[in-house]
Amino acid sequence: MKKTLQYLIDKKRAGTPITVVTAYDYPTAKVLDEAGVDSVLVGDSVGTNCLGYKSEREVTIYDMIHHTSAVRRAVDNAFIIADLPYGTANSIDGTLLNARMLTDCGADCIKVEGWSEKAEIVKSLRANDFTVCAHMGYNPQIHDKPGVYGKNEAQAAELMEGARALCNAGAEMMVLEMVPAKLSGEISAWLPMPIIGIGSGNKCDGQVLVVNDLLGISQKIYKHARSFANFRETMYEAIKDYMDAVKSREFPGEGNSW
Questions:
Q1: Where are the alpha helices (DSSP H) in 36-91?
Q2: How many CA atoms lie within 13 Å of 28's alpha carbon, on the beta-carbon side?
Q3: Is pTM beyond 0.90 here?
Q4: CB within 8 A of 144, min separation 6: which ones?
Q5: Which listed residue (56, 113, 172, 177) is catalytic?
Q6: What's the pLDDT tens digit per position in 32-77?
């Protein structure tokens, strides 16, 4: 069954947590879809996790088109969200053009980073029938360094105000990144849209993890993440075993040859 925005909204209303995983390629997305993940997020973190970029700000719309297309080819059921990368959601005309390219290659929903300053952009996207996911808290496209946002009263008020502005502008989902758990829980209870947390506590309507962190591929384990496997070590050992088998001429064996 193809999962839709209404499916996610119904899960929020039922109090059933929504599962989201950030992924960027066909084979990974295929496994996620077979496992029954609710949503696959094709994030601009593809730049630092897959492409060797120093920052998400180096990611282009063409990078996002390439990886969103790969995920779309893999996914039959999950709801696909794609990021508008750095610099592609600054003007209304430019945003609409870039969003159309992402939906044309398979995105069900367009994600926009930013706080209340993105309200007009969100409004224009909704007026043109795009489904929009907002992204508040820590924004890699905006903030130079990771940090928790909403720790003090002024920041908390700004977050609440921004969340209200984006909701009123038509945003239908929201990612809260590195927001204090109590505050993110309040926003989740207060807004009608599904709120997906990352590093924002377990009172959000759902959670998102980058697949590299989930599988233990990343070199660094972040506070907000948990590695549910150690694929980095498994990959390393498999590669070493392959090298040994080639050097000893044990591989390819008789069963691998004609």
A1: 46-49, 61-74
A2: 21
A3: yes
A4: none
A5: 177
A6: 999 999 999 999 999 999 999 999 999 999 999 999 999 999 999 9
